[in-house]
Amino acid sequence: MSDASPNSTDRQSGNSKSALTRFFGSRITWPVLGLAVVLLFNAIFIPSFFTLEVRDGQLYGSLIDVLNRGSIGVILAMGMTLVIATGGVDLSVGSVMAISGAIAALILTETQLGMLGIVPCVLFAALAAGLMNGVLVAYLKIQPIIATLILMVSGRGIAKFITGEKIITVGDDSYNFYFDFIGKGHLFGLPFTVTLFVTLFAVTSLFVRMTSLGLFIESVGANETASRASGIHDKGVKIAVYVFAAFCAVIAGLIDASNINAADTMNAGVFTELDAIFAVVVGGTALTGGRFSLTGSLIGAMLLQTLMTTLYTYGVPSDVAPVPKSLVIVAVCLLQSPVFRGQLQRLAGKGGGR
Amino acid sequence: MTSPVLLEIRDLRKGFPGVQALAGANFNVQRGEIHALMGENGAGKSTLIKVLTGVHSRDAGEVRFDGQSIEPRAPVQAEALGISTVFQEVNLIPHLSVAENITLGRQPRRFGFIDWRRVRESAQAAIARLGLSLDINRELCSYSVATQQMIAIARAINLDAKLLILDEPTSSLDEKEVDELFVVMNRLRSQGLGIVFVSHFLEQVYRICDRITVLRGGQTVGEYVTADLPRIDLIAKMLGKEPADIESMEAATAAAHHQDAITLEKGEHNPPVLQVNQYSRQGSIQPFDLSIRKGEVVGLAGLLGSGRTEIARLLFGLDSPSSGSLSVDGVHHSRWTPRRAIEAGIAFCPEDRKVDGVIAELSVRENIVLAMQANRSVVRTLPMKKQLALAQHYIDALQIKTPSTETAVGTLSGGNQQKVLLARWLVMSPKLIILDEPTRGIDVGAKAEIESLVASLRSEGMAVIFISSELDEVVRTCQRVTVLRDQQVVGELTGDDVQENRIMEMIASSHE
Amino acid sequence: MNFIPKKWIPLLTTATVFVLLFSAASWQYEGFASMYVVADLFSENAFLGITAIGMTLVILSGGIDLSVGSVIGFTSIFVATMITDRGMNPIAVWMMALLLGTSLGALMGALIQVYKLPAFLVTLGGLFFARGMAFFVKPEAVQIDHPIYDSLGDIAIPIGGGAELGVAPLIFLSVFVIVLVITHFTRFGRNLYAIGGNEESALLMGLPVARTKIFVYTANGFLSALAGITMTLYMDSGNPINATALELDAIAVVVIGGTLLTGGVGYVAGTMLGLLIYATIYQITFFASLRSSLATIAIGVLLLGFIVLQKLIHRK
């Protein structure tokens, strides 16, 4: 079931489809199962994983840690989901994160404006980055990986230029409560980042489904010519999703910078675009575009973070963690490949058929 | 002495899920002849060629080539046997040189390295065999499509081909280029090559071909010597008519059309919904005039490739015109796009439903509300209740057979997909709806439903442009028919004149 | 411009940009127009050059390979660790490294071709995998101190003006010449152009599309490993973080060199020019004591310019 068809389940249940068939036919089945497997593994082998404790009215524990660290992945995945649903991809989000962090750090250390200065500046950066990507893809018809590669290359240079090629630390004299709160604050007993990503997820989900934007995105991703022939402004839709992806990226950049109290343009957001693509693909949105599931992407991002946290618990250095990550990516893609599925079915046919 | 028969295909059968593309086709080609393979959409021409060249495998039947029974599994194998194909779309590499394109994959080598001198020599020889002279060192894409086609032929016969299949080679050529191609074809014929010529242009077929084989519905209608087959008979055979059929049907429709003619005259004072003057698009349709009034059904009749679809796409703004003017309700429009056309109350059900029409992945409901939704602003979404009601209304009204409003359209049958597409536009209550082959690939029952739907739309005052290869359908449905041939409007029939044989005569009449 | 074939425009633009850039820098900065600087252009970027040449082949075939930087990083630390920590013979280690890089390339090529997976995604997987394995081998830098490395380090070919080329640029130049010959004088090389130009047509023309595509990723894996070895020769050390994001620089060099990112058009010689432009820009920021981030931005702007230029030239 996709988010787009709220009635599909109850309407189709009239037919012979059992609950089980419906469960396995749904696009968020696999990420949910994957998450369940990892959590079950942790429940058996790392009992402390589920331990929660309350300190100063705030929750602590591995699960909370997953939610907190996973927030950047979820936020980027929201933007990436919509871009991928139109049949595109945005490789520049990591660089845009770095730019956002750099702008924030510069404003905090060089001016007294605080968040009042940061918010309009990063929003402007998001608009500029999104427009550049969107115009290259929609109007110049440059393939998305190539179009967004340009900003991926130069974006980090821009970020470094902003910070003067050093790590700008947001120290005592430039301390800003609101900025600090973004990455390290607590709200409702949980890290503020959780409120942030849940809000973004809820608002985005509601917006795309309450308006026709979600329908237009899926329509453009599934069949661009037919969408144009139905009167959909396909170019406008594409530009909108790239701007939104950049918007998500600047928020993620602020969280990252606030977390480490600094703008580290060398490392901020490196490889995050890959994590985001991973979350989207695992979450059941096809790279070819069309139907998308923000819920799936949310779970995909959480699955990835849980996997990473589990590996760290087992003492796998964070630098080596990409190895299992890459194996999971390739495995998931293989499972989605029609050729591979065909081979599997033939194997199963041989084994099961008498 | 080798036998004069080069290719012999007997009782060829090939089925795809849901359609029997070839149901016992026969086809013979002799050495040193140009043989036309003709038929309308779905006749089985392309399937026959694909089986012959090893793209598809066959279900049954025999193919004998050059005295041997063959069954190629890939185009490469067919080529090795001596069967080469040149398609309408030039299948060469645009940015490589002419010489390279001719020799690619079989370049002469010395010590494992390409011997460029011999590459050029061999390419030059291949070009000379066609009697052409051009610079083989230039990039392929610097030449016209026509020349590229010749180069493709040069490549195709470079490998000692015995049979050359030319699949719609002239579709994008102008008259002079066609002449050049025919010179080359004649030359090859005199060298003993068998040539299969697939084309929609009757004129060209009669100019160059020795014999004609007509396919219809996956079967061979017959094989004829070109000189002995009148054009009108060829058209009748392609469309599956017998002269007797036509006469009996005329009587039945004449009365109905008489009535239409009277209504038509009454409506003469209505301003036209859509009017175009000297509208044209280079390479696809010559300048034409067309106007259509409220409550009128205008047919576009002509063979495949005659420019029917091209007109439809122009009128809906999917392609931009090279000349001419267009007005809707008397208002002139200059930059005509689908969005503007929709705003002006025009709707279009395209010929290729899967590419330009329905969005297979989306549900029936979403497909039905799509155009209406796109015409509102993004935030003014139709409430789900309204969407469901609309979808359900049209599912009932058009009798769309679907398990639910949320079923993906791609899983429905062709006829039901067509109805979903119609529903998408009916929701908009357009002033004019353009239907391009609305009955193609759907079953007989659904065809009748669509015909009666057109009649009821018309009685509600909607204007309809109706395009179909089925002439009987056109005659039953339309009060006025614009006839096309070879990318030109050749005439218009109204009232009592809307008869199948009149249409066929017009198509058959040669250039003056 | 009618007398210039369209496909030459990007290459000629590249050559012009390089000449202008180098002349301007020579006029502006004393000592820029010297053989030392020329030798530096080649030496400092030898490994980038090798991998950019491999990338040219992949892009010509219409694909992309994002794993190269990680494979270089992995190779460098693998070679250093095996020689220094395990005391193995460098030549045996090189063979092993080349085999590993080649195998990874072949595996990725097979996944892309056989299972029709998007190249950027599979090679992203390769990027993660190789980088992770690099840290798995050893998480910090390792020095190499071996007689073979010493004697190779002594190699220096004088190129006039007192400047010399070491072993790293020599490997790069040999690779350049060999690949130049392969692309122009072998069927494999021409097939790459055909596949990148129009894969559908190439199939219909009976060219070995699948074999060629798998081979090009395999060859690029080999060249990445070779670039990694060259890096250890140049630096006398290995480090798992070496060559991070180098794939982006390699792609930029290829595109600035006039190769069409959609495949089918381009020259290995163009990539050499692209590399020289890249190297000159960095050299200028060094001479002018500008921030090197300006060089990154300049490369990004050039990349944008060339991609848009290509789009305009090849617009139908």
UniProtKB/TrEMBL annotation, chain A:
The domain of life for this entry's organism is Bacteria
Annotated CDD domains: TM_PBP1_transp_AraH_like (cd06579)
The membrane topology noted for this protein in its Swiss-Prot or TrEMBL record is: Multi-pass membrane protein
Residue ranges spanning the membrane: these are 28-54, 66-85, 187-208, 237-255, 267-287, 294-314
Keywords from UniProt, A to Z, are: Cell membrane, Membrane, Transmembrane, Transmembrane helix
User: InterPro entries from the entry?
Assistant: ABC_transp_permease
Q: Name one Pfam family in it.
A: BPD_transp_2
Q: What is the annotated localization of this protein?
A: Cell membrane
Identify the PANTHER family for this entry.
Answer: ABC TRANSPORTER PERMEASE PROTEIN YPHD-RELATED-RELATED, GALACTOFURANOSE TRANSPORTER PERMEASE PROTEIN YTFT
Query: What's the name of the protein?
Result: ABC transporter permease
From TrEMBL, chain B:
SMART domains annotated for this entry?
AAA (SM00382)
Q: Domain of life of the organism in this record?
A: Bacteria
Q: Which GO terms describe its molecular function?
A: ATP binding
* PROSITE patterns named in the record: ABC_TRANSPORTER_1 (PS00211), ABC_TRANSPORTER_2 (PS50893)
Which intervals hold domain ABC transporter? 7-242, 268-511
Q: Which Pfam families match?
A: ABC_tran
Provide this UniProt record's keywords sorted from A to Z: ATP-binding, Nucleotide-binding, Repeat, Transport
* SUPFAM superfamilies with a match to the protein in the record: P-loop containing nucleoside triphosphate hydrolases (SSF52540)
Query: What PANTHER family would the database entry show?
Result: CARBOHYDRATE TRANSPORT ATP-BINDING PROTEIN MG119-RELATED, GALACTOFURANOSE TRANSPORTER ATP-BINDING PROTEIN YTFR
Name of the protein in question? Sugar ABC transporter ATP-binding protein
Q: What lineage, starting at the top, does this entry show?
A: Bacteria, Pseudomonadati, Planctomycetota, Planctomycetia, Pirellulales
UniProtKB/TrEMBL annotation, chain C:
> According to its record, how does it sit in the membrane?
Multi-pass membrane protein
- Superkingdom of the source? Bacteria
Q: Which UniProt keywords apply?
A: Cell membrane, Membrane, Transmembrane, Transmembrane helix
User: What are the TM regions of this chain, as residue ranges?
Assistant: 50-79, 91-112, 157-182, 214-234, 246-269, 281-309
Protein location:
Cell membrane
Chief location category: membrane
PANTHER family listed in its UniProt record: ABC TRANSPORTER PERMEASE PROTEIN YPHD-RELATED-RELATED, INNER MEMBRANE ABC TRANSPORTER PERMEASE PROTEIN YJFF
What's the protein called, per UniProt?
Answer: Sugar ABC transporter permease YjfF
